[in-house]
C-alpha cells in the first residue's frame, strides 16, 4: 500500500508546487504559445488509480510543435498512450487557468509549460516531456 501512495503523493506535491509557485509574471511565460515551440521528448507517463509511472528514453516518443503553422509532428518508436505517429493541426484554448490542447478540433488534454518541461494531463494521467 505504501508503494502506491508515494507516487500519488509526489504527483500531488508537484502539481501543488506548479500552482503555488507561479507569480503573475511567470504565468505569462507559462501560457506563452511560443514556449511550446520545438521538440519535446516523453520521459514519463502514468499516475491515475495505480500511481504507476513508465519511463521512456529520449527519442522513443517525441512531439515537435511548429507554433507558426500550428502543427505537431508526433514520432513514436513503440506503442504508448497517446496519438499515433503523424502530423496533426493543433490549437490551444484557454479555459480559466488551463490551456486545453486540441488536435483536429478534438480535446486531447491540459498543458502546463515552462522553459524546459511540458506536463500533459490526459484522462487523469500525467505525461512529462522535456526539451
Automatic annotation (TrEMBL):
Superkingdom per UniProt: Bacteria
Protein name: Uncharacterized protein
Amino acid at each position: 500500500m505504501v508503494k502506491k501512495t508515494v507516487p500519488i503523493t509526489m504527483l500531488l506535491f508537484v502539481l501543488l508546487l506548479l500552482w503555488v509557485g507561479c507569480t503573475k509574471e511567470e504565468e505569462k511565460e507559462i501560457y506563452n504559445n511560443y514556449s511550446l515551440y520545438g521538440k519535446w521528448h516523453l520521459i514519463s507517463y502514468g499516475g491515475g488509480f495505480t500511481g504507476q509511472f513508465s519511463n521512456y528514453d529520449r527519442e522513443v516518443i517525441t512531439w515537435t510543435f511548429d507554433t507558426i503553422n500550428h502543427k505537431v509532428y508526433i514520432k513514436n518508436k513503440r506503442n504508448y498512450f497517446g496519438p499515433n505517429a503523424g502530423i496533426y493541426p493543433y490549437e490551444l484554448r484557454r479555459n480559466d487557468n488551463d490551456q486545453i490542447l486540441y488536435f483536429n478540433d478534438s480535446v486531447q488534454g491540459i498543458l502546463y509549460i515552462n522553459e524546459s518541461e511540458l506536463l500533459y494531463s490526459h484522462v487523469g494521467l500525467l505525461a512529462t516531456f522535456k526539451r
